[in-house]
Fold this protein.
Amino acid sequence: MSEVRPFDVAIIGGGIVGCAAAMALSERTRVVVLEAESTLAAHQTGNNSGVIHSGLYYKPGSLKARNCTQGREELYRFCQEQGIAVERCGKIVVATSEPELAALAELERRGQANGLEGLRLLGKEEIREREPHIVGIAGLHVPQTGIVDYRGATAAYARIVQEREGEVRTSSKVIGLSRQDGHLVLETTSGEVHARNLVNCAGLQSDRIARLCRVDPGLRIVPFRGEYYDIVPQRHELIRNLVYPVPDARFPFLGVHFTRMVKGGIEAGPNAVLALKREGYTKLAMSLRDIGSYAFYAGFWKMALKYWPMALREVWRSLSKRAFVNALRRLCPELRLEDVRRSGAGVRAQALLPNGSLCDDFRIKRTDRMIHVLNAPSPAATASIAIGKNIADMAQETFELR
């Protein structure tokens, strides 16, 4: 019986962050990507709005801000070189009331601190010049924002890994881990995988993978579903590019907005409602295990007590098409109920700390032979190439790569 040759690094998770990490590591060593689903980018990567974020919202100096600024430009270059659909179209953040003006000014300050050039405050008429059907008292034009095909980008990352003699295995859910002869043995639904080191990029399952590896993640993943509507083709003239409201700084969600899609069409949304399953893309999708994972977590109830009024508003907006459209009409008063139809949904892996705080920045934990990416919220897709390089650098420091 021949001896099994272990991979140097096994990456758990075939979303855009896992594949970007694999691409960066494959320049240095032999890697394998293990994805539980039958296709890559099946969850957060493939069910978001396809926006390349500018770095406007993030606290200057944070991991989010640094990675977004660097990764944004790398992603634009990569997609252009690889022939992936991408467009730097810009967006407008619109204030619709006097109390939002201070927050809009703070966004401009943050954007400038994060190196965004060409930001421009707009008056009512200037908003109308760029977006004739949008109404607001002031706006902020952000030229760096764009739209992209994230599934296509993920597939390109994976193709490069394979060209460098790495492997990408789908339908390979990790269900166990042990140590043998100085390396790790990962039990998957497609057979055993031997590796010297491990990188956990499992997204919605990242905390569970950490625990399976006998690592305390120090947080719990709570799933929030974001639901979208499509604007019917006959009304596409209502939106030219991307239009966002001024977000509530207390929450890591940006509010319902309008997004022109890189492959055609215009999306409106998402809201943010607690999901009853980690991969629960419909209202009826339910997992008792997933509900129990947060229902018996003290941090969840601390969060719920603090934010229940907002939660009720989001639930109502989920149940009522009229409520959803009314929120959109703050930006586009001409929008009618018949102008939108229900579309898909995405699920955000929101990391929640024991004290009830929403973990807003990237959270990465290093242990013996392992790196666990425990929180990679938006703009992780935008920053994926930069995050992948950072993970590869960490691996160089943490592992003995061959």
